[in-house]
Every structure is written in structure tokens, then in C-alpha cells.
From TrEMBL:
<feature type="domain" description="HTH cro/C1-type">
    <location>
        <begin position="13"/>
        <end position="62"/>
    </location>
</feature>
<protein>
    <submittedName>
        <fullName>Helix-turn-helix transcriptional regulator</fullName>
    </submittedName>
</protein>
<dbReference type="Pfam" id="PF13443">
    <property type="entry name" value="HTH_26"/>
</dbReference>
<dbReference type="InterPro" id="IPR010982">
    <property type="entry name" value="Lambda_DNA-bd_dom_sf"/>
</dbReference>
<dbReference type="InterPro" id="IPR001387">
    <property type="entry name" value="Cro/C1-type_HTH"/>
</dbReference>
């Protein structure tokens, strides 16, 4: 999939664990793993908004298009 989710980069910058991130966003750690591993087929805007709020970042910091 040409859209890459960069949650791991943003979590590393903030030294935040997946568990803490999942809890603060309202996702299960398993669903965060799905996003991190590129297996997600879609992301709700409400989830993207929550991720941006928790990480204090822009959607473009979390999503990147890469040519296949």
C-alpha cells in the first residue's frame, strides 16, 4: 500500500509507549499495531484527529504517500 503510517516515528520522538498511546487515543494496542504495520485499510477522521491531538502533530506527520 503506498500510504505509510508513521506512528512509530512520532511515538519515538515523544518517547511514548504503544500502550500509553493506545489508551490516550482510545484504541486497543492491537489496532495500533495494525496501523503501525501497514495492515489498516482505512482510518476514520475521528481516529486521525485523536492521534494528532495526543501526539500534538499534523495528519501529514502521521501519513506519508510513497510510490510503489
Amino acid at each position: 500500500m503506498p500510504i505509510v503510517v508513521r506512528i512509530d516515528v512520532e511515538l519515538a520522538k515523544r518517547k511514548m509507549s504503544v500502550g500509553e498511546f493506545a489508551e490516550r487515543v482510545g484504541l486497543t494496542p492491537a489496532n495500533v499495531a495494525v496501523l503501525k504495520n501497514g495492515r489498516a485499510k482505512a482510518v476514520r477522521f475521528s481516529t486521525l484527529e485523536a492521534m494528532c491531538r495526543v501526539l500534538n502533530c499534523q495528519p501529514g506527520d502521521l501519513l506519508e504517500w510513497v510510490e510503489e
